[in-house]
Design a protein that fits this description.
This protein is an alpha/beta fold. It contains 14 helices and ten strands. The longest helix is centred in the C-terminal third of the chain and has 21 residues.
Length: 318
C-alpha cells in the first residue's frame, strides 16, 4: 500500500504544497519514487514524518477500545475492521482482536480465518505467548489476533479459572507497549469473554441501527454495565454511541435518532454512518472501504467518526 503526496499530506494534516516544501528544504527526507519517477509514501512513513515535523499522533495515550452491542446485525464487525484499518493507515500502530468465534472481523480484512489454528483461546486458556498468535497484515501498522471456531470453548474453559474476569486485561499488558491502539470486536452477547473485554477496555463504542430493536438492545446493555459497575467497581472512561446505516429520508430513522438524543445524549456522537451500499460491497469482497471505495460517503463518515472520537476537529470527548 502506498500514498500519493496529496493523500499522504492529508493524513499528516498539512497541504501537499507544505509537504513538498518541507522536502525541498531538507526538513523531511525525500519521498520514494517508482519506476515512473512518481513520488510515493508508505504507512510506516507517517510515523517518521510526524516525528520530523513535530506532529503528534491522533492517539495521545494507549487506548483499548471495545466494539459491542447486544443486538446482532448492527454492522459492528464491518465498522471495527474499517475503523482500525483507517487508523493504521493514518500511522497509528494498531492491534485488532477478533473475539467472536464466527471470525467476522477477521474475514472483513480479507483473511481466511480457517487457516489460523491459533486464536485468543491459546493465549487465554493454554497460556501460550500472545505474540505467537498475533498475525501481521499487509499494512505494516496493523496486526490482528484472528478468530474462528477454535475460540468456541473459551467460555467453558474460563469458568473454572482463578481471576477469570481479568485474564484478558493481564494478557494485553504484555503487548500493549507495542501499540498505540488495541481494538476488540465482541460477539453480540454477554459472557465471560465479553466481560473480560469490558474490564480490559478504556472506551466502549456502540454502533446502533436507527430502529427500536437496537434502542431496546441499548437498554439491556446499559443495565448490564450498571451491574458490572457494582460488582467490579469498573466504569468506562468513555462510551460512544453512534448511528449506523442512517437514512434521513426514512421516518423510522428520524424517530430513532430523536429517541437516542432524548435518552442517551451524554454518549451520542454527532457523526452518523450513512447508509451506503459501498460498505456492504467492500465487506463482501473482504476488504476495507478505504481500499474499495475511499471516496465514498461511508469512508468519509468513518473518517469523521475517528476525528470526533480523537478530537481532531474540535470534538469535546477523549
Amino acid at each position: 500500500m502506498v500514498y500519493s503526496p496529496m493523500s499522504f499530506a492529508k493524513i499528516l494534516g498539512i497541504t501537499k504544497h507544505e509537504l513538498l516544501e518541507k522536502e525541498s528544504e531538507g526538513i523531511v527526507p525525500p519521498a520514494k519514487r517508482n519506476a515512473r519517477q512518481e513520488r510515493y509514501y508508505k504507512p510506516e512513513d507517517v510515523i517518521k514524518y510526524r516525528n520530523y515535523l513535530g506532529i503528534s499522533s491522533p492517539v495521545k495515550s494507549i487506548r483499548k477500545q471495545l466494539f459491542l452491542n447486544f443486538k446482532g446485525g448492527t454492522g459492528k464487525s464491518t465498522l471495527s475492521a474499517s475503523y482500525g484499518f483507517r487508523l493504521a493507515q493514518r500511522g497509528v500502530r494498531t492491534l485488532l482482536i477478533d473475539l467472536d468465534p464466527q471470525g467476522h472481523l477477521t474475514q472483513c480484512l480479507g483473511l481466511n480465518n480457517q487457516q489460523y489454528p491459533k486464536t485468543l483461546f491459546n493465549a487465554l486458556i493454554e497460556k501460550e505467548d500472545i505474540e505467537k498468535i498475533i498475525i501481521k497484515t499487509d499494512l505494516s501498522t496493523l496486526d490482528i489476533i484472528p478468530s474462528n471456531l477454535n475460540l468456541s470453548p473459551v467460555e467453558l474453559s474460563l469458568f473454572s479459572m482463578n481471576s477469570r474476569e481479568f485474564r484478558l486485561r493481564r494478557l494485553l499488558m504484555s503487548v500493549e507497549k507495542n501499540y498505540e491502539l488495541i481494538i476488540m470486536d465482541a460477539s453480540p452477547s454477554i459472557g465471560l469473554l465479553n466481560l473480560n473485554a469490558i474490564l480490559a477496555s478504556n472506551d466502549l463504542l456502540i454502533p446502533v441501527l436507527a430502529d427500536f430493536l437496537s434502542y431496546h438492545g441499548l437498554k439491556i446493555l446499559f443495565e448490564t454495565l450498571s451491574t458490572i459497575e457494582e460488582d467490579f467497581s469498573f466504569v468506562f472512561e468513555n462510551i460512544f454511541i453512534f448511528l449506523n446505516r442512517y437514512n434521513d429520508s426514512h421516518r423510522i430513522c428520524r424517530r430513532s435518532k430523536k429517541a437516542l438524543e432524548t435518552h442517551y445524549e451524554k454518549y451520542l456522537l454527532n457523526t452518523m454512518i450513512r447508509q451506503d451500499t459501498r460498505i456492504a460491497e467492500a465487506t463482501s469482497q473482504g476488504t476495507s472501504i478505504f481500499l474499495f471505495a475511499p471516496s465514498s460517503k461511508g469512508a468519509a463518515d468513518i473518517d469523521h467518526l475517528i476525528d470526533e472520537i480523537f478530537r481532531l476537529k474540535g470534538a469535546d470527548r477523549v
